């Protein structure tokens, strides 16, 4: 029983689908941030000069508005002008952040809309459970990862600053524009190397999250069996349904025996009830059939209903094995059955 409860089985498709519907998917929260940081770094490297030129032009145009009096109306115009022009300058940056943020999440999980994940859950605001999550194994792992990232980033920044320490010291003798240029190059080097390193760590975290997600969703053999029962139906219930269906089919079959013209028997092993309406049927039709106890019951009903019971073991056996209920007999049995039906005309049945 202990083996049944151990979570050793991979999650089923239904388990994965249910988890996705609840918003529980394998993804790294660090990957979007790392990708965004790297692309923003390169973006500012190439877009930075244009951005600085635009900001300088904006400031210059604001100061050139000398014809405005200092009042509420002029202040409103200057503020509105500043907001619009600043938005134009920053629009590419904002668009990049938005697109990269959305794309990096969609690439991890695919497009998904899960209203169930947005529904309120009382356990999320339970202080006791929240305290437990804070000191859980998962939280400890996340803390260790964060400390490691801080250490690595700090160490990389330290190595770059150390490499440029002579240049940094000589900045004291430079003019403002040279200082700004040198400082920008050092910051850019730090940013793109840190961003690249963060991207590699985020990819490693994504792989770990995929593994952890699969481990968290693993199922016990008992859970797999129960899910299979729910999907396919309980075997006991299905067996009971089949039994009821067979019983109903037998009852319908027995109800059709009095409508037959003749019952061919073997004489105790098989019994097949036939009906033939020349104007309606192309060939005789099997109305009912059975063996042993069922055959005896068919014969009994036939006798009670005044139906001719004719013993012909080869034909009865052949009809029972080759023709289903409701089907016409095959051509190779036409002659033999016709001879049997000819006896029906000689048999005086009571009026039904």
Short description:
This is Flagellar biosynthetic protein FlhB. Helix content is 68%, strand content 7%. By secondary structure, the chain is of the alpha+beta class.
Helix content: 55-70%
Gross geometry: elongated
Number of strands: 6
> What structural class is derived from the secondary structure elements?
alpha+beta
Radius of gyration: 43 Å
Low-confidence stretches: none
* Widest beta sheet: strand line-up: 5-4-3-6
- Looking at how many chains there are and whether they match, the oligomeric state comes to single chain
Tally of distinct domains: 2
Relative strand content? 5-15%
For the sheet with most strands, the description reads:
4 strands, mixed
What gap, in angstroms, lies between the N and C termini?
A: 64 Å
From N to C, what is the helix and strand string? HEHHHHHHHHEHHEEEHEHH
Mean pLDDT score, rounded? 78
Q: Helical segment tally?
A: 14
Organism: Denitrovibrio acetiphilus (strain DSM 12809 / NBRC 114555 / N2460)
Subcellular location: Cell membrane
InterPro entries: FlhB, T3SS_substrate_exporter, T3SS_substrate_exporter_C
Protein name: Flagellar biosynthetic protein FlhB
């Amino acid at each position: 029983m202990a083996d049944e409860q151990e979570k050793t089985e991979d999650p089923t498709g239904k388990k994965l689908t249910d988890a996705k519907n609840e918003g529980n998917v394998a993804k790294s929260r660090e990957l979007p941030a790392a990708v965004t940081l790297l692309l923003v770094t390169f973006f500012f490297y190439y877009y930075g000069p244009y951005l600085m030129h635009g900001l300088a032009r904006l400031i210059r145009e604001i100061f050139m508005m000398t014809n405005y009096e200092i009042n509420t109306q002029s202040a409103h115009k200057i503020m509105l002008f500043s907001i619009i022009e600043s938005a134009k300058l920053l629009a590419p940056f904002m668009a990049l952040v938005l697109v990269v943020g959305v794309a990096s999440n969609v690439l991890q999980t695919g497009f998904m809309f899960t209203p169930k994940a947005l529904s309120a859950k009382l356990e999320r605001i339970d202080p006791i459970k929240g305290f437990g999550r804070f000191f859980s194994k998962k939280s400890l792992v996340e803390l260790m990862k964060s400390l490691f990232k801080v250490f690595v980033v700090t160490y990389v920044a330290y190595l770059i600053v150390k490499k440029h320490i002579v240049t940094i010291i000589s900045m004291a003798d430079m003019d403002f524009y040279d200082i700004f240029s040198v400082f920008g190059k050092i910051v850019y080097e730090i940013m793109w190397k840190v961003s690249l390193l963060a991207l590699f760590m985020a990819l490693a975290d994504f792989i770990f999250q995929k593994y952890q997600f699969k481990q968290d969703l693993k199922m016990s053999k008992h859970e797999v069996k129960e899910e299979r029962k729910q999907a396919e139906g309980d075997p006991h219930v299905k067996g009971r349904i089949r039994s009821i269906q067979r019983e109903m089919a037998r009852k319908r079959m027995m109800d059709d025996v009095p409508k037959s013209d003749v019952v061919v028997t073997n004489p105790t092993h098989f019994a097949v009830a036939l009906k033939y309406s020349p104007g309606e049927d192309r060939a005789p039709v099997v109305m009912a059939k059975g063996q042993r106890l069922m055959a005896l019951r068919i014969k009994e009903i036939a006798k009670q209903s005044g139906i001719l019971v004719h013993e012909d073991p080869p034909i009865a056996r052949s009809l029972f094995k080759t023709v289903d209920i409701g089907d016409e007999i095959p051509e190779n049995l036409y002659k033999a059955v016709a001879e049997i039906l000819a006896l029906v005309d000689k048999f005086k049945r009571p009026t039904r």
